[in-house]
Design brief:
- With 297 residues, this protein is an alpha+beta fold.
- The protein contains 3 helices and 20 strands.
- The strands form 5 sheets. It has a 6-stranded mixed sheet, with no helix packed on it.
- A hairpin with a 2-residue loop joins strand 15 and strand 16.
- The radius of gyration is 42 Å and the shape is rod-shaped.
- The protein starts with a helix and ends with a helix.
Length: 297
C-alpha cells in the first residue's frame, strides 16, 4: 500500500512540474505568447544547425592566377564536415576529379591535399596547360542539398619582346647589344636563353666576347652583349625564357664604307637614269615637231 502511494505521488509530480515550468516560461515570454515561445525554439534550432552543418570558410568565388607550366593550389576550407565527403569537379566537362582523398582521373597531374584534422581540402594541379584554364567546384552534400565553393583558375602565358625595331644594323667591329623583356609573368622565369640562328650562345666560349646579364623581377630583363662584331654574327637572334613565348630580331653586320658606297651607287644610278630620260625626250621633240608643222599646212 505504501509503495503504491509513493508511485502515485511521483506520477503526479512528473505531470505537474513540466506544466508549471512551461507556464512560468510562457509568462516570462509575455503572458502566454506562443509566437515568442516558437521563436525561442527555432532560434535555438537554427543555432544548433549552424553549429553542426558544414560551412565554407570563404563563400565568395576565388580567383587564382598561375603561370603556364607551374603548379596551381585551389583551396577549399570546410568547417563541421563530420562524416561528409568533399569532391572537386571540373565545370568545363563536369568531370569529378577527386572525392575525399581519392582521385578519379587518369591525369596524374591532379591530386587532393589534406592533412588529418584540418579543414583544408586543396586541389593541386601540376605542370599547368592552357586547357586547365577554367572554373573548378568544391562541393559537399548536406541534408538540404549540395553546398559549393567555386575557384576560377587563370593560366597566363608570359611574353618576351626585344627592345627596338625588327631589324638592327651594326657596324663591323662594334658591339651588338640586345635587351629582352619578359612581360605578364607572375614569377620570374627559371632561365633566359639567347639563340643565334637556332644555336644557343649563352655559354659560347668558342666565339668569345659574348655575355648575358639577367635581372629578375616583376619584369625580367636579359641583356645580350657581343663585342667586336663580324659579318658572321649577322642573322636571327632569339630570346627564349621558360614557359614564355619567344621573341626574335634580325641583326645586320656590315662595314660603314658599304653604306657610303651604296649611297654613291644609288646617286650614280639616279643620274644615269635622269640623263637617259633627257636624251629620249630631246629625240622625241625633234621627231614630233616637224610632223605637227606638216599637219598644220
Amino acid at each position: 500500500m505504501t509503495e503504491t502511494l509513493i508511485w502515485s505521488v511521483c506520477l503526479l509530480l512528473a505531470t505537474l512540474v513540466p506544466t508549471t515550468i512551461q507556464h512560468k516560461m510562457k509568462r516570462e515570454l509575455g503572458k502566454g505568447d506562443s509566437t515568442e515561445w516558437q521563436q525561442l525554439w527555432y532560434s535555438n534550432f537554427e543555432e544548433y544547425q549552424r553549429l553542426t552543418e558544414p560551412s565554407f570558410d570563404n563563400n565568395t568565388v576565388s580567383n587564382v592566377t598561375v603561370q603556364l607550366g607551374g603548379t596551381a593550389f585551389l583551396h577549399c576550407r570546410v568547417r563541421n564536415l563530420g562524416e561528409r565527403t568533399i569532391s572537386w569537379v571540373r565545370r568545363r566537362d563536369w568531370h569529378i576529379l577527386t572525392s575525399g582523398v581519392f582521385t578519379y582521373t587518369n591525369d596524374e597531374r591532379f591530386q587532393v591535399l589534406h592533412a588529418e584534422g584540418t579543414d583544408d581540402w586543396t586541389l593541386q594541379i601540376k605542370y599547368l596547360q592552357k586547357r586547365d584554364n577554367g572554373t573548378y567546384e568544391c562541393q559537399v552534400s548536406t541534408g538540404t542539398g549540395i553546398m559549393s565553393h567555386f575557384v576560377n583558375l587563370h593560366i597566363v602565358v608570359p611574353e618576351a619582346y626585344i627592345v627596338g625595331s625588327g631589324e638592327h644594323h651594326i657596324d663591323l667591329g662594334s658591339v651588338i647589344s640586345l635587351v629582352c623583356m619578359i612581360d605578364k609573368s607572375p614569377q620570374p622565369p627559371q632561365y633566359v636563353f639567347w639563340f643565334h640562328n637556332n644555336r644557343m650562345i649563352n655559354y659560347d666560349t668558342a666565339r668569345g666576347g659574348i655575355s648575358v646579364e639577367t635581372e629578375s623581377g616583376p619584369k625580367t630583363q636579359s641583356k645580350l652583349t657581343i663585342r667586336d662584331a663580324h659579318d658572321v654574327d649577322s642573322g636571327n637572334y632569339t630570346c627564349s625564357a621558360s614557359n614564355t613565348e619567344p621573341a626574335s630580331v634580325f641583326v645586320f653586320v656590315s662595314e660603314v664604307m658599304d653604306y657610303v658606297a651604296g649611297d654613291k651607287m644609288a646617286a650614280i644610278s639616279r643620274r644615269k637614269s635622269s640623263s637617259g630620260s633627257d636624251v629620249i625626250a630631246n629625240f622625241m621633240w625633234f621627231i614630233v615637231m616637224p610632223l605637227v608643222a606638216l599637219a598644220a599646212r
